[in-house]
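FAQ

Q: What does a record look like?
A: Structure on top, sequence underneath. For example:
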């Protein structure tokens, strides 16, 4: 977090085995926010949303209606004082609502 901007990134892989070199999709981007409420949790949530949008786009492009696959997220967020200063339900409601919408489709 610096100057009210947080950074997030993710790596999407078709397998949990990290010992071999598989094709992967990587993303990194900045997430802005209000100086009084921005936290690294918001940027981590935005990363989840971005991955969901990509998966939805892939499914739409290839006309995938159902799949036996599952998505496993690992967030490394270590926000210690977030709940002392802000509540993710009220400050990040836009991202949480978009995540809910994306997972329901």
């Amino acid at each position: 977090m610096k100057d009210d901007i947080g950074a997030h990134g993710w790596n999407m892989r078709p397998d949990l085995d990290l010992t071999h070199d598989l094709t992967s999709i990587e993303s990194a981007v900045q997430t802005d926010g209000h100086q009084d409420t921005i936290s690294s949790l918001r940027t981590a949530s935005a990363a989840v949303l971005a991955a969901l949008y990509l998966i939805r786009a892939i499914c739409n492009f290839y006309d995938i209606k159902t799949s036996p696959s599952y998505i496993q997220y690992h967030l490394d967020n270590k926000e210690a004082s977030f709940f002392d200063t802000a509540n993710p339900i009220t400050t990040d409601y836009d991202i949480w609502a978009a995540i809910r919408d994306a997972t329901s489709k």
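Q: Is there anything notable about this one?
A: The longest helix spans residues 40-61.
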